[in-house]
Amino acid sequence: MNCKQVVKELKSLANSRDVAGMAKFGINPAFVLGIRIPSLKAIARRIGKDHGLALELWETGIHEARVLAALIDDPGQVTEEQMESWAMDFDTWDVCDQCCGKLFDKTPFVYKKIDEWTQRDEEFVKRAGFVLMTQLAVHDKKADDKLFIDFFPIIKRESHDDRHMVKKAVNWAIRQIGKRNIRLNKKAVKLAEEVYSMDFKAARWIATDALRELNDEKILKRLMDKEAKLKK
Fold first, then answer.
1. At what angle do helices 123-139 and 93-102 cross, to 10 degrees?
2. Which of 22, 34, 41, 223 is 20 to 30 A from 142 in CA distance terms?
3. In whole angstroms, what is the distance from residue 150 CA to residue 225 CA?
4. What is the domain extent for residue 6?
5. 217 and 115 in a common domain
6. DSSP code of 60?
7. Model confidence over 178-204: pLDDT tens digits?
8. Residues 112 and 11 in one domain
């Protein structure tokens, strides 16, 4: 399929009611067709990996075309320049998160971008840096605990940022790291307590919400059971 054919198919699936629903969840309705993720994933499976097509779809500016671009792009062909260009185009949390979770976290630039983007001023670029942390915590099963502990100073440094898309991502990073194993859970709880003690409204929200999940009995039991199985 070429770009023109894909865009035609996407437009045929447009749903104005879903556009309105997406707007309620903070998704900018501009250039949105209202296509749900399962439908986009089905199209992505038919297309397969296609770096060139992904680049073309991104340039259309259509919301769903950009999500689809993240789904079909080949992380092995993604350049650092492409990541920077796409990140500067982020204007909704879902495109940001799909790019980070389906594509950018699988590139060799992921750690560099975490370091760089979490220091940036642009709301969605900074969010992207923290979303990459969450995706590594979920997807990189072989990573050493120290890799995630090294993120703690970054998390503390940015916990003052009260912008909605940033503080939600900082909170998400703490929670995902803390749910990785029981050892990191204990360290993430301590981190959240330190964040709470900071004299910022955003920090208190980030920490309170994170502690609620990290101290949840079901989550703690799952992590302890997981640890026990590993010791057998």
1. 40
2. 41
3. 26
4. 1-73
5. yes
6. T
7. 999 999 999 999 999 999 999 899 999
8. no
pTM: 0.93
Of residues 41, 168, 27, 26, the one with CA closest to residue 102: 41
> For the chain, what is the domain count?
2
Cα 166 to chain centroid distance, Å, stands at 11
229 and 119 within one domain? yes
- Residue 16: its pLDDT value, please? 77
Task: Write down the pLDDT at residue 26.
Answer: 59
Report the distance separating Cα 87 and Cα 103, nearest Å. 12
Say if 88 falls within a structural domain: no
The Cα–Cα gap between 227 and 181 comes to: 7
Judge whether 185 and 178 are in contact, CB under 8 Å: yes
Where do we find the tokens 């900071």?
Answer: 198
For 23-58, write each residue's pLDDT tens digit. Answer: 655 565 567 888 999 999 999 999 999 999 999 999
Residue showing tokens 């919400």: 209
CATH assignment at residue 125: 1.25.40
Residues 224, 113 within the same domain: yes
* Residue 204 forms part of a structural domain: yes
How far is Cα 56 from Cα 37, in angstroms, rounded to an integer?
20
Choose the final residue of a domain: 73, 105, 136: 73
